[in-house]
């Protein structure tokens, strides 16, 4: 059970007070709420252009595990040198999840320059690297440690207010629920991995084991079922395709015919 709206309001308040991105993760490490929602331009450069998403996820997973072992706040630097902090959330000695702060520079001389140079070393253009790094917030280690204490207090508040409860939901189950509610959006396995904090291999293997079909197969089937219902109600092929996440009507018609054995145009009117 997740009171996402209230949690997001809390994360937003923390962000507005500090400038630090905050995220909430369940006990499986899947991200279930964040503010701001997406990663910073700096991290996007690392994830998408440099292909290091799996390394970032692995580092985050290790940090969550260390916070769990400590039973308290864990402050560290990610592989790109940014400040991160993790606070586990417990209720009656049961791990409910984690509160995480990340994407923050340490306030030291030339730290922004060093961070930008790190992106350049990964192949990012100097101008883009400088612009992305300029948007990162910065703080001293003392401030990071003080904010860690605030995170610990907020983790306790989340548990005591019953804003988050253990539900045993796996990343595969979380991904399935997300697909069913967001199938019309641009979804890929990598998008789901970023959202639910697991690597591509884990997502694909666990999803196939749990549902007997791949993520791509599920997404296609759910989109086609929704489009079929729209067509039966009189929606045009082009409109039904767009409403259900198909950007190419011709490709949609091909998928529809393969799935149902007839052209979608036969369902119009």
Describe this structure in words.
The protein is an alpha+beta fold and 269 residues long. It has 2 domains: 4-160, Beta-Lactamase; 171-267, Homeodomain-like (Arc Repressor Mutant, subunit A, Orthogonal Bundle). It has helices at 4-18, 41-49, 53-70, 111-121, 126-134, 141-160, 171-182, 189-196, 200-211, 215-232, 237-243, 249-260, and strands spanning 21-26, 31-35, 74-77, 83-91, 94-106, 138-139. Strands 1, 2, 3, 4, 5 and 6 form a 6-stranded mixed beta sheet that branches. The radius of gyration is 21 Å and the shape is globular. 33% of the residues are buried. The mean pLDDT is 88.
* Average pLDDT, all residues: 88
Oligomeric description of these chains: single chain
Q: Rg to the nearest angstrom?
A: 21 Å
Total individual domains? 2
Order of helices and strands: HEEHHEEEHHEHHHHHHH
Determine the strand fraction and express it as a percent band. Answer: 5-15%
Number of helices: 12
Note poorly predicted spans: none
Q: What structural class do the secondary elements suggest? A: alpha+beta
Largest sheet: 6 strands, mixed
Q: Considering DSSP H and I runs of 4 or more, what fraction of the residues is helical?
A: 55-70%
CATH fold naming of the largest domain: Beta-Lactamase
């Amino acid at each position: 059970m997740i009171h996402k709206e209230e949690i997001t309001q809390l994360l937003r308040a923390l962000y507005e007070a500090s400038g630090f991105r905050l995220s909430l993760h369940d006990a499986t490490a899947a991200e279930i709420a964040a503010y701001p929602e997406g990663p910073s331009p700096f991290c996007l450069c690392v994830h998408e252009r440099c292909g290091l998403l799996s390394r970032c996820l692995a580092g985050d997973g290790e940090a969550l595990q260390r916070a769990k072992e400590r039973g308290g706040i864990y402050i560290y630097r990610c592989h790109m040198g940014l400040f991160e902090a993790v606070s586990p959330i417990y209720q009656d000695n049961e791990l409910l999840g984690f509160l995480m702060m990340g994407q923050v520079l340490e306030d030291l001389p030339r730290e922004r320059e060093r961070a930008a140079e790190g992106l350049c070393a990964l192949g990012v253009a100097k101008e883009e690297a400088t612009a992305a790094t300029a948007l990162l917030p910065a703080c001293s280690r003392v401030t990071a440690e003080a904010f860690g204490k605030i995170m610990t207090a907020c983790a306790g508040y989340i548990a005591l207010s019953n804003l988050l409860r253990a539900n045993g939901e796996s990343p595969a189950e979380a991904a399935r629920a997300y697909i069913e509610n967001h199938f019309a959006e641009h979804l890929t396995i990598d998008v789901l991995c970023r959202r639910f904090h697991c690597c591509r291999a884990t997502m694909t293997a666990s999803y196939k084991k749990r549902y007997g079909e791949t993520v791509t197969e599920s997404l296609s089937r759910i989109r086609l079922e929704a489009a079929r219902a729209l067509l039966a109600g009189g929606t045009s092929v082009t409109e039904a395709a767009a409403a259900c996440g198909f950007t190419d009507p011709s490709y949609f018609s091909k998928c529809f015919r393969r799935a149902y054995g007839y052209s979608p145009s036969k369902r119009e009117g």
